[in-house]
Amino acid sequence: MRAICILIFTLFTFAVSSQNGRFVSSINSSWEFHRGEVANAHSTDPLTDAWKVINLPHSWNDKDVTADGERGYYRGPGWYRKSVFISGDNSKKYFLHFEGANQKTTVYVNGQKVGEHVGGYSAFTFEITSVIKRNSYNLIEVKVDNSHNSLIPPLSADFTFFGGIYRDVFLVETDHTHFAMDDFGSSGIFITTPVVTENTGLVQVKGTFMYAPEKSKNLRIRSTITTKEGREISRFEQKLNAKAGKNSFSIKSPLLTSIEPWSPQKPNLYYLTVQLVDDGKVRDELTQPLGFRSFSFDPVNGFFLNGKPLKLIGANRHQDMYGAGNALSDERHRADLQLLKDMGANFIRLAHYPQDPAVLRAADELGILVWEETPLVNEITLDECHHKNSEVMLLEMIRQHYNHPSVILWGYMNEIYWAHRFLPQEKVEAHTKETVRLAKTLEKIAREEDPTRYTAMAMHNYPLYEESGIDSIPQVAGWNLYHGWYYDELEDFGKFMDRQHAKYPNRPHIISEYGAGADNRLHSLQSEKFDFSAEFQKRFHESFLKQILERPFIAGAAVWNLIDFSSERRIDATPHLNNKGLATYDRTPKDAYYLYQAALRKDPILKIAERGWTHRTDYPPAANETAGQYPIQVYTNLAEVELLLNGQSLGKKKAEDYQVTFDVTLLPGQNTIEVRGENHAMDFVTISFQPLPWNLKEGFTVLAVNAGSNCDYTEEISGQIWVKDKSYSKGSWGYLEGKPLYVANKIGSKEDILTIDDDPLYQTMRVGSRGYRFDVSPGRYEVELLFTDPYPVSRRFVDGAESPDHPGDLRVFDVLINNRLVLPSLDLLKHQGYNYPLREKFIIQVLDENGLSVTFQSQKGETIISGIKLTYLGR
Ligand code: GCB
Ligand code: CA
């Protein structure tokens, strides 16, 4: 029992009055947090051990969404509390402003409920003036609940619904007269630029404010436009007869000449300060970003910014990070946008929900155009209350982020028919109708709220969008397309889009998602879809980017995803993680990232795209051939590249489609690969290479084989490389018959292999094999065998408890090593349970020149093996 008085633990938050009416201070530090329901809410009793001290931003799912051996993560209530000292007098009003808490939040101050908010991705503000004690401590308690709630989108999605107060919380003190604090969490003022030409602009500011005194009175609304450097370029005012209560205003600037337009290339950002002036006293003041730009979508020629065509190329982004869940600092958010900017991108889709104010701010400052959307993903429910919540989410998003010049598109649905295939037939029609109706309502709201932006919807490759007519509702059709990954072949993407364009020649199209998974532990020169090799990801993006750039009618495209992100229910090579990122979960760029750099940036880019594969081992492709022959790929926007291996030039080559490939034979040990281009551009990587002999009698220490796979797999902790599988030929080694396991046309089982982290090694398997032969010299060997049974076929995206134990007897086989029975009647399902790995070592003495045989003899079903490793231990 830790009996600490919370008053002692509380940091003082001084709310000193500022000169200009409003004072804003965060209250992020030293909250007490309790996961679960609490019995003694509103009491100042000593806290029990179940409470711990945390700082905001905070999520309680930072750990349980990773490979912790249990499916699911905590979804339920959590309580936060903190005592805050609030100073001031009766002339002040007080508000709590939450930038976001997932997903249902109830706030109490001094035991009284001050408000409730649903939806995990937008800000909300509650007034607390009437319940606080001034110049005293006030107990703030916040209950947050991330339980599934069929009335609150998202109902399901391929990302983790982290619970907690995961963004900043602010205490806002205002004068009695202040800009609206009850306008859907927004600033209360809305800026547009009705006129924008190359260097002129006109600014309009609309808004509402509260005026407190009983008698009406003339106030002045004063607006000032300043540059980033703080130079004032315009000041305009309006007199307004304010009545007690709510007042609205609308004021226009004079036509400003010599403004500099905002664009990704030159994000000239201005600031607009609006003041409420009463007898020379500033009652309230707000500063908002301001940018002068015009834009439009054209069905034939794509996107135009400031009158010039601009292909939008960028990525989607989620808001979580390894170790932190979704509780990211402003700096972290900004760093992610910088990563995107450094890639050369000019576009971001904030999928699948409104993101932190720091993200929008960074987009404004860095020059990244934004598609933002509300979290309606996969499906809806038919309840009116669900629809109401969806409407409010849209209003919140638009009003809160209205003033950011970076925003060009508002979205309100993502793959909303995704879950349709699971609906019973008799429900399909009603569901479809209701989805269309809701889309129409949301479309109307978005257009009325903000006629200056376009609306968009992200659809997937599913005919119902067309059949139901929902595809004609938004102004821009967004497409999430995964040709060559989930279905079809890479080139089918372009064909799909050409058909769309031909069929709907008046419709602007944008690619809202396209991507392929990659795990840097997997590498292959024969990469194929769904093997999760870094090489396949490169092939995928090379193909898509080319097809996108070749088609002017495609206004833009956003890679899925900028960064690997948490999806607790997903099981791929990296369970619980969606690894389609161009950067890893800790933000290291994968090789495909550099393709975009080369294609998008204007400064010289020369990058060896082999950075994810710096430790290699390989055997010769055939007897009498040399191991270590690799195509070394370079991404560049230069015309010509020279490559040097350990200082020796291998010649120059011309680049095509932003790339050049050199055939290089790596030498045993460290290889320095250097590339050079015009204007002293250069890059290098060091690749260590360890060859394996074709003929094992030439001597070797360790031979580790990734059975049933074309990929080399590197164990993260040990660095041990498991080489791609190989068939036996005399004088060498390899498998005897069998084939790689495919499930639904995709290689490997893609099940979560429990208790270990080397999932990909176990997920790929050779089935139906008679065994492996190794033509080794006599001596002592350690033979290590790795197995797992892939049954059941797949449980992806299925919630709930573990599947029940299986009695086995589906697949039973004997394993012998040099005729010695080492695993008799192996029944993995029965003895291990599915998805639990079996990894054992056997010490074997090879006495003669006949080498070493690992033999699988089936009693029932097909034999199976995931990995096999041979270590020479001496004679
Ligand atoms: C989609 C979804 C996105 C998923 C992605 C994927 O189409 O919109 O939420 O994460 O596919 O990786 O499958
Ligand atoms: Ca695992």
Name the shape in a single word. globular
Biggest sheet, in brief? Answer: 8 strands, parallel, barrel
The CATH homologous superfamily of the largest domain is termed Glycosidases
What structural class results from the helix and strand content?
Answer: mainly beta
**Which cofactors or ions or other ligands sit in this model?**
(2S,3S,4S,5R)-3,4,5-trihydroxy-6-oxo-oxane-2-carboxylic acid, calcium ion
Helix share bin: 10-25%
**Annotation field: number of helices:** 11
Structural domain tally:
5
| Overall pLDDT level | 94
Write out the strand line-up for the largest beta sheet, numbering strands in chain order.
Answer: 22-23-24-25-26-27-28-30
Contiguous low-pLDDT stretches (5 residues minimum) are 1-18, 796-800
Distance between the termini: 62 Å
Q: Which architecture name of the largest domain does CATH use?
A: Alpha-Beta Barrel
Under the CATH scheme, which class of the largest domain? Alpha Beta
CATH topology of the largest domain: TIM Barrel
Proportion of beta-strand residues: 35-45%
* Computed Rg: 31 Å
Please count the beta strands (DSSP E, at least 2 residues each).
56
Account of the 3D structure:
There is one protein chain. This protein is mainly beta. It folds into five domains: 2-179, Sandwich (Jelly Rolls); 189-290, Immunoglobulin-like (Sandwich); 295-602, TIM Barrel, CATH 3.20.20.80; 615-691, Immunoglobulin-like; 699-874, Sandwich (Jelly Rolls), CATH 2.60.120. The strands form 13 sheets. An eight-stranded parallel beta barrel has the order 22-23-24-25-26-27-28-30. A seven-stranded mixed β-sheet has the order 29-42-43-41-56-50-53. The chain is globular and about 105 Å long. Residues 1-18 and 796-800 have low confidence and may be disordered. Calcium ion (CA) is lined by residues 67, 575, 752-754, 756-757, 759.
